[in-house]
Each structure stands twice: as C-alpha cells, then as structure tokens.
C-alpha cells in the first residue's frame, strides 16, 4: 500500500510539473496548446535516447548520465517549442488548438515509426535513472525519487512564482489583460507570448525526462492524445490562471483516474479488461463534461475563463 | 515509381470522397456555430457501427452484381444516417448549445468536444471491443479501369454514391429555401435573423445533415475494408485540413478540400513510409494556415 | 398620442447585457405614410432601440405595439412575419450570395412562390436587375444599400426601420435614397429611420425624435425640430 502511494505521489508530482507548464502557456498567456503530450514526448524521448544503455540496433542509446539527459531534454523541448511557436502562435484560438494537436500526433507517429532511434513500438529500456545504483529495491529508489521530486517541484513552483512577479511576468499579464494597451506601451506581444510558450514547453520537456527516468522505459503508447486531455482536465478542475489550483487539479484528476482504474479492475473480470478501461474513460469523460457544464470555475481560484482573449 | 501514380490518384479520389463527406459537416459547424468540433469524427464511427447493428440483424444482403453487398446495406446506411443525424443534434442540445448560451470561450467548447469524442469512441469500444468488424465477408476482384489502375467494385460504387450525395446537397443549398437559409446563416447569423430565419431551426438542420453525411462517410470507410473504433479518429486531422483548405462555410470548398487532402495523402505514400501517413494532413493543415488561412473559397469582406 | 399611430413604443427598456440597459424607457410613435427620424449623438441608443423593436435583443421593460398588437416578447422571426422589416447599418447584405439570392432570402418567411415580389423589387431598383446574378460583394456602396432596402421590402412590410441608410454614401446617392423612402412611405408604409445626418434626415421626414443617453429629449414635427435652437445647438452643428 505504501509502495503504491509513493508511486502515485511521484506520478502526481510529475504531472503537476506538466500542469504548471500548461498553466503558464494558457492561464498566464492565453495560448491554447492542444498538443501538450507532444512536448512531453520530446523531453521523454530525448532523455531516453541519450541515457539508455547502448544496444547495437539503436542509433542513440548513448548511456550518458541522468543529469545530461534531463538538461538535454529541456533544451530539445525548448528548441522545439520555439520552432513550433514561431509558426503557430499567430493563429486564432481554435486553429492554434488544431495545429498543436497535429504537432503532437506527428511527434507520436515519429516515435512509433523511427525505429533505429526511438525503438519504434517496442520503445527503449534501461533508461538512465538518477543514482539508481545506490538503491537496492525499487521501493527504496521510488522513495528517493519522491524526495527528489518534492525538491524539484518546490523549485519549479517557486521559480515560476518569481518569474511571474518579475517585470517580464507583469508585462505578460498586461498583454493578457489588454493587448492594445500593452502594445501601445511598446512591448511586442508576440515576443512575450513566444517566450512564455518556450518556457512552458521546456518545463513539459523536464516532466517528460522525469517520467521516463522514473519508469525506466519509454513507449510511444504512453504519449497518446488522452494525456493532453488529462492535463487540460487538471487545469480546468483546479481553476486555471492559478498555480496552486493547477497542482490541486493534478492531484484530484489523477486520483480520480487511478482510483477509478483500480475500482474498475476489481469489478470487471480480467477477460473484459478492455471493456473495463473503456468504462473508466467514459465515466471520467462524463464527469469532466458535467463539471464543465455546471461548475466551470474549477475548484479554487480564478475563473477557468480568462477575460479578453488575445488570440481570439 | 511513376507507374504507381495513377493508382495513387485513384485511391486518393476514394479517400478524398470520404473525407469530403465528413469535411462538409466540419465546415458548417466551424462557420455557423463558430467552433472546432473535435467530436465530429466520432460521428463517422457511430454511423458505421449503427449500420453494423442493422447488418448484424438483417444481413448485408446477397451481393448484387460485382458488389459485395445488396440493397440491405444501403438501407442500413440510411438508417445510420438518420440516427446519427439525430444523435449529433442531441449532443448539441445536451452539451454544446448549453455552453454557447453561456457564451463559453473556445477553450471550453473544444475541451467539451474532446471529452464528448472520448466518450463516444469508448462507448463503441465498450460495446464492440477493439477488434475489426466487417459488413460482409464477400471477396471482390479488382477491376482494371485503366492500365495500372485497379479499383474494387465497392470502391467505384462508393465514389459514385458520395459524389451523388454532394451534388444533391449542393442543389439543396442553392435551390431550396431552407438550403439558402443555411448558407445565409453560414455567412451572418445576425443578418439571417433579421431576415426572419429561425436560427435554432437552421442549427438543428445543420447538425442533422452533418451527422447524416458523417454516417455515410463512416459506412463507406467501414466497407473499405473494415470497421474498428478508431476509423473516425484517424480521419480527424484530414477532416479539418479539408474544411480549412476549402475555406470554412463553403460546400464546394469542403468537397475540393476533401479530394485534395485525399490525393495528397495517397500521393505522399509513394515517397514516405506508410507509418507516417497520419502526419500528412497535419502538414497540409499547417501549410494552409500559414499560407492562406482563409482557404481556397474563403474570404469575404 | 398621435391619431392612428401604427407603431407605438412605450417606456421601452433594453440593452445588450441583462441588467445594463442602453435604452431607458423610450416612448415613440410612427404612423403609416409618414417618415419618422431618430436623431442624436453617437451612443444615444438609437440603433439599440431599432434592434429591440426588431426582436434582436431582449427588452427588459415597456411595450412595442404594432397596429394595436403587442409584439414585445415575440421572437425575431415572428416579428418579421408580423410586418416589421429592419435594415441594419452594417453587414446588411449577404456578400457571398448573389443579388437574386439575397432577395430570395429576404422573402424567407413568405410561404409560396415569390416571383412577383422579385419582379417588383427589380422594377423599383433597376440597377439590381442588371446585376441579379452577381455576388453582392461586387456591388458598390450605393448599390449595396439599395439591395439592403430591397431585401427588407421583400416581405411587404408595413413598418420599415433603417439604421443610418445614408452612411458613407455620396450626396447625390443620399438624395436618391431619401427620394425612394418618400416614395415608399407614400405607398402606405411607416418608415422609421435612425440618421446621423440630422439636418438632411429632418428635411425629408414628417416627424422626428431626439435621443440622448437612451432617452427621448424632444419630439415633434420635423420642421419645428429643425428650427428649435436647443436641438440645433446640440446636434445640427452648433449655434447659428
């Protein structure tokens, strides 16, 4: 039981980083990123390719240290975010969503097909974990990883709060509230939005690297659109525009997801596992839509609706 | 390699026709309801499976001529079209319209659509599972239409039927009072209201027609050659690419867009590996959005 | 109360957002065969008033009566059927439809064939006949205004409301539009128009109302409004 809770907590914290990143892009900048899982994947795969133990059939698997993998993942995702942002940020809300969604689908396809690099549908294993050699049992490692995640999460949270209080952050807020005024003040709205997008993307890459270094392997089937949906749900449930809400949302939604998965697997016989999984998704999907219809403001904080949308 | 091009063109026409049928619904929802309905592709899946239910009970019919099915499958498709159209309207009434009334922002609408899509897709998985199903087990022999171009009789029939449906819809939109009301609403709901057009009635009709066309597209997909719960979702990006390429709100645009996307996808298979086929519509979409976001027939003052 | 008033708006309260009215209890009247001008500064609520009468925005108080019949709470399409036609200031033609299709859409609420109405519209506005198969986006400003009015006339309305029908038009075209409106009024229609060009509007109207901040300040025969110094001061361009 305790082992499960430790595992659960680690995942929640990783997803929390994702949600905070999305909150930066959406809640503070108004960018409708419907391809979150794509950025998550870039970070995950970069880390995997650089740190996995070498194997003859793979081009990557360089066996580099964990920290190198994590930093490279952040850099790669940051760069990708910059390129993608350059092209897509000028698009209107719905169209930005479609474009970023397409980006994520394409990335997943690349992960699935480019076997020599990504391992294709088999994925990659023996990925670099932080200080894995010091810990005898999986439980001991997970406990250490939890400690590491708590420190990392606190750092990310604190850093984000500082950044948002800074002149850059205040300018961002001004742009979100009233673009014409901000532009009149001489701030290039587009540049700020791109910077926020890249920063958010970098954090998503970090989350991806942390995820695969926790699990130890990477598979393209971990990066399907439903992950994007889950992260958005976390943001909406928690009330976007609010970092505390984002974290609370991550906890609540993941608890719901994991919990319902456990409940379904207990109630549904293993022969019908696929049906059970379908029931789980249906129930959660319905729950979230009901929440949207009847409690659109989320659990805490700001309305899930940001006032004047710069990209509409 | 160049010998494969005519075949790719033929395959592209077939895929294009199916995408066009789905894109018509997407383009009208984008223009009249002003939102990107990510759940539209699931209407294709529902249409296909509803027809499957009818076929399971009534059978696909003894093969007529070179086709693999009889008139019963067409009847099943009609039943599916009606029910899917009504389902589309029901979903709008229960979910999207409520949000529109509240002037919900695009995020909420898209998220709700995504959620609806998930529920719709997984209901199919719940009832039918992940494995493939077939309307009929009849084997077909491909006909050689031109040197190097082979199509199954089913495929030729579908292409013809799809084109007939598009022509019928075009006539409806340009000749009938209700059709013109739809086109008026697609341009300006406010002015349409000023002219005495009942907005709610037109919205209802738009959903029913969109759902019916999606159902046909789904049945045609399921026929060539099989059904599985992802058939709609796999076309999602293609549908949007086609609608946007043609210019939102334009029927000829959606049709032309559909065929262009279908052709592009099939021609690209000649140069890239099939695993990446799903990325083609996205690349097309990106190109359109960057170069000419109003599409071919879009852009009004 | 004006004898035989056809349109009677009493104490109308309306706005775009519930609880934030723009029109604060306006009372106006219009009789058949007369042109009534609504003038006033920008933001006075003149357009809002017309939209409220047309059923396009919700009224929060007051009544609109047409020939004695209360049409206040009716949905927009029923108001059109009851004989009220509205020509908005902008976006008043379907640019992606042809001239012919625009007119046909205008007759949407009329059951049965509309070919004689179409012929009447073309007879009244010959330039439209010449361009009947062209898309409305190819028309000039004056032609579009013509089409917008022709579209509104397709239902044979008894009350025609226009929001700034001469905005952006050349003076010669403005004259032509006003001449047409006079002709229409003479056939028995009540014409209610919002105009920015107050002097010109009052010259062609029978009566007028001055609106400011959502309320009627003055009302009366057009001639006397033209001569009234307070009106002149505020709206017709300063002291004489």
How far is the N terminus from the C terminus of chain C?
A: 32 Å
Average pLDDT of chain C, rounded to a whole number, is 89
State the distance separating the first and last CA atoms of chain A: 47 Å
Shape of chain A: globular
Q: Nearest-angstrom radius of gyration of chain C?
A: 17 Å
Mean pLDDT of chain A: 85
Model description:
The complex is a heterotrimer of chains A (312), B (301) and C (240). With 312 residues, chain A is mostly helical. In chain A, 71% of the residues lie in helices and 0% in strands. Chain A has one domain (2-222). Chain A contains twelve helices and no strands. The longest helix of chain A is centred in the middle third of the chain and has 28 residues, at 138-165. The termini of chain A are far apart. By secondary structure, chain B is an all-alpha fold. Chain B has a single domain (2-138, 145-291), classed as Orthogonal Bundle (ABC transporter involved in vitamin B12 uptake, BtuC). Chain B is built from eleven helices and two strands, in the order H-H-H-H-E-E-H-H-H-H-H-H-H. In chain B, helix 1 (5-33) packs antiparallel against helix 10 (251-268) and helix 9 crosses helix 10 (251-268). With 240 residues, chain C is of the alpha/beta class. Helix content of chain C is 36%, strand content 25%. In chain C, strands 6-7-8-3-9-10 form a six-stranded mixed sheet, with helices on both faces. Chain C has a four-stranded antiparallel sheet with strand order 2-1-4-5, covered by helices on one side. The longest helix of chain C is centred in the C-terminal third of the chain and has 16 residues, at 171-186. The mean pLDDT of chain C is 89. Classes of the chains: A mainly alpha (312), B mainly alpha (301), C alpha/beta (240). At the A-B interface, helix 4, helix 10 and helix 12 of A face helix 3, helix 4, helix 9 and helix 11 of B.
């Amino acid at each position: 039981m305790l082992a499960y809770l430790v595992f659960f907590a680690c995942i929640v914290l990783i997803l929390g980083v994702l949600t905070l990143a999305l909150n930066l892009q959406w809640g503070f900048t108004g960018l409708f990123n419907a391809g979150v899982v794509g950025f998550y994947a870039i970070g995950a795969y970069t880390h995997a390719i650089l740190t996995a133990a070498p194997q003859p059939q793979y081009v990557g698997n360089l066996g580099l240290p964990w920290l190198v993998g994590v930093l490279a993942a952040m850099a790669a995702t940051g760069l990708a975010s910059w390129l993608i942002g350059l092209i897509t940020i000028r698009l209107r809300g719905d169209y930005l969503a479609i474009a970023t969604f397409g980006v994520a689908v394409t990335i997943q396809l690349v992960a699935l097909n480019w076997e020599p690099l990504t391992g294709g549908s088999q994925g990659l294993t023996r990925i670099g974990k932080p200080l894995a050699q010091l810990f005898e049992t999986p439980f001991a490692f997970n406990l250490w990883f939890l400690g590491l995640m708590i420190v990392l999460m606190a750092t990310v949270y604190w850093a984000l709060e500082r950044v948002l209080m800074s002149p850059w952050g205040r300018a961002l807020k001004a742009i979100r509230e009233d673009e014409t005024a901000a532009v009149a003040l001489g701030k290039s709205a587009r540049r700020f939005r791109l910077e926020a997008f890249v920063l958010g993307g970098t954090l998503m890459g970090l989350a991806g690297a942390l995820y695969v270094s926790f699990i130890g392997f990477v598979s393209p089937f971990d990066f399907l659109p439903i992950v994007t949906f889950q992260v958005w749900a976390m943001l909406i449930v928690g009330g976007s525009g609010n970092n505390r809400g984002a974290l609370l949302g991550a906890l609540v939604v993941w608890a719901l997801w994991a919990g319902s998965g456990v409940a379904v697997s207990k109630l549904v016989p293993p022969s019908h596992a696929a049906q059970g999984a379908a029931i789980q998704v249906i129930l959660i999907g319905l729950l979230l839509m009901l929440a949207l219809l009847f409690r659109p403001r989320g659990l805490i904080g700001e309305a899930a609706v940001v006032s004047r949308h710069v990209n509409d | 390699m160049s010998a494969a091009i005519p075949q790719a063109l033929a395959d592209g026409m077939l895929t294009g026709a199916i995408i066009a049928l789905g894109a018509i619904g997407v383009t009208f929802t984008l223009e009249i309801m002003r939102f990107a309905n990510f759940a539209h592709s699931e209407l294709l899946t529902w249409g296909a499976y509803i027809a499957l239910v009818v076929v399971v009970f009534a059978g696909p019919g003894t093969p007529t001529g070179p086709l693999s099915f009889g008139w019963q499958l067409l009847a099943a498709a009609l039943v599916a079209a009606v029910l899917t159209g009504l389902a589309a309207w029901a979903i709008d009434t229960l979910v999207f319209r409520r949000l529109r009334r509240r002037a919900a922002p695009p995020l909420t609408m898209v998220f709700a659509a995504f959620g609806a899509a998930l529920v719709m897709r997984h209901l199919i998985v719940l009832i039918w599972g992940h494995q493939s199903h077939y309307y009929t087990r009849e084997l077909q022999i491909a006909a050689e239409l031109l040197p190097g171009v082979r199509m199954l009789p089913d495929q030729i029939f579908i292409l013809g039927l799809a084109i007939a449906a598009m022509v019928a819809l075009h006539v409806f939109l340009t000749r009938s009072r209700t059709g013109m009301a739809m086109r008026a609403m697609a341009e300006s709901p406010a002015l349409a209201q000023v002219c005495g057009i009942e907005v709610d009635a037109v919205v209802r009709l738009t959903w029913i027609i969109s759902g019916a066309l999606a159902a046909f597209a789904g049945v045609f997909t399921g026929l060539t050659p099989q059904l599985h719960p992802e058939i709609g979702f796999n076309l999602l990006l293609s549908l949007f690419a086609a609608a946007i390429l043609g210019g939102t709100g334009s029927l000829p645009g959606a049709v032309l867009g559909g065929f262009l996307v279908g052709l592009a996808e099939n021609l690209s298979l000649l140069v890239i590996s099939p695993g990446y086929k799903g990325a083609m519509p996205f690349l097309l979409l990106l190109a359109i959005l960057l170069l000419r976001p109003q599409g071919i027939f879009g852009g009004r003052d | 109360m004006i004898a035989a008033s056809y349109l009677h708006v009493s104490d109308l309260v309306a706005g775009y957002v519930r609880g934030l009215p723009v029109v604060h209890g306006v009372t106006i009247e219009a009789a058949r065969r007369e042109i009534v001008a609504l003038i006033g500064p920008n933001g006075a609520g003149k357009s809002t008033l017309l939209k409220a009468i047309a059923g396009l925005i919700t009224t929060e108080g007051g009544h609109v009566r047409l020939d004695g019949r209360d049409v206040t709470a009716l949905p927009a399409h029923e108001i059109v059927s009851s004989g009220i036609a509205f020509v908005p200031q902008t976006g008043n033609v379907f640019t992606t439809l042809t001239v012919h299709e625009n007119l046909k859409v205008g007759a949407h609420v009329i059951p049965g064939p509309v070919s004689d109405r179409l012929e009447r519209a073309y007879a009244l506005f010959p330039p439209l006949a010449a361009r009947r198969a062209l898309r409305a986006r190819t028309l000039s400003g004056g032609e579009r205004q013509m089409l917008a009015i022709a579209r509104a006339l397709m239902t044979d309305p008894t009350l025609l409301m226009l929001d700034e029908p001469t905005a952006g038009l050349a003076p010669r075209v403005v004259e032509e539009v006003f001449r047409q409106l006079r002709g229409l009024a003479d056939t028995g229609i009540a014409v209610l128009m919002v105009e920015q060009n107050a002097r010109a509007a009052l010259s062609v109207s029978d009566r007028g109302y001055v609106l400011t901040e959502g309320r009627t300040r003055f009302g009366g025969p057009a001639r006397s409004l033209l001569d009234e110094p307070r009106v002149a001061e505020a709206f017709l361009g300063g002291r004489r």
